[in-house]
Amino acid sequence: MKRVALLVPCHNAARFVPPFLAMVRAQSRPYDEVLFFDDGSTDDTVHLLAAAGCQVLREEHNRGAAYARNRLLAATTADYVHLHDIDDELDPAFVATLLPDVRPDGAVCCAFQRRRPDGHVEREDRFRDLPVAGPRVAYFIDHFLTFNAVIYPRTVLWELGGFEESLRIHEDLHLLLRVAASGLPYVYHDRILTTWQLRGDSTYHAAESRHIAAGLLDCLADLNRRWPRDIRRELGPTLLDLAWQFHAWRDTENTRRAARLAQSCGQWSIANRGGRMRWLSRLFGPVGAYRLLATR
């Protein structure tokens, strides 16, 4: 019998505890194990979870989402795991729909939607064109698959090293791309079974655009360091896009850093910009092209 665990990191999430527990209890096929990790909360999160009889791991100081998720992966006894944020919604049919298709060498995922703070749905994320096999790094850079919408074999995430704890943002993308590079296959269900709540006070959405871009650059730089060139070349176009953003912000240091990383991935010319930029980058490389534009 397949055993699946729900793993939930939380920090100052008291207001989300009652509705989230109601969604967990409403599952038509219950989770076999439910674990929470409280990451240094100063509100009533732990008290409310304990009062409801939940199993809660604790950390006195806030160590970040990657640390919390890794502790949960280490603690569970289930073969399959679903990592979910406590402030996001969960359809009652999530486990019953996805669990039958997960296996030791393959994950299962579903569609999800993003909802703005005003209650309106920003967009639906569907993966009908998800490649069935092979490395899919470029695909998942362009089609972010939240961990909320996936059941993974625990051993796959664990053997890949779990979440990168040096990252405070984009740690989920970092692991997603490592899973993609491993070639793990996914079974896809084209049903919206979870909702990602876009909250202005979350770590990601409270950050400024330049901070988010700098975090993404750190994420891709670490992957570039880990991977052989035949895989990391898929990072090149995104790194040049980041260089363009930093150039627009007049951030010379990060412009050069992103462009040089792109070159190390084999991406020398800027194919998705205007003709002058393409021409300059072919002659002088992306770093030279940005330097020339910066002097004008």
Please name the defining characteristics of this protein:
alpha/beta; 42% helix; 12 helices; single chain
Per CATH, the superfamily of the largest domain is Spore Coat Polysaccharide Biosynthesis Protein SpsA, Chain A
Distance between the first and last residues' Cα: 66 Å
Helicity range: 40-55%
Reading the helices and strands in chain order gives EHEHEHEEHEEHEHHEHHHHH
Number of domains: 2
- The overall strand count is 9
- Quickly give the structural class: alpha/beta
* CATH architecture call of the largest domain: Alpha-Beta Complex
Biggest pleated sheet: 9 strands, mixed
CATH fold naming of the largest domain:
Spore Coat Polysaccharide Biosynthesis Protein SpsA, Chain A
Our Rg estimate from Cα atoms comes to 20 Å
Please mark out the parts with pLDDT under 50 across 5 or more consecutive residues, or reply none.
none
**In percent terms, what proportion of residues is strand?**
15-25%
Mean pLDDT: 90
Principal-axis shape: globular
What report would you give on this structure?
The chain has twelve helices and nine strands. It has 296 residues and is an alpha/beta fold. Strands 1, 2, 3, 4, 5, 6, 7, 8 and 9 form a nine-stranded mixed β-sheet that branches. The chain folds into two domains: 4-197, Spore Coat Polysaccharide Biosynthesis Protein SpsA, Chain A; 209-294, no CATH class.
In short:
By secondary structure, the protein is an alpha/beta fold. It is 42% helix and 19% strand. The chain has 2 domains: 4-197, Spore Coat Polysaccharide Biosynthesis Protein SpsA, Chain A (Alpha-Beta Complex), CATH 3.90.550.10; 209-294, no CATH class.
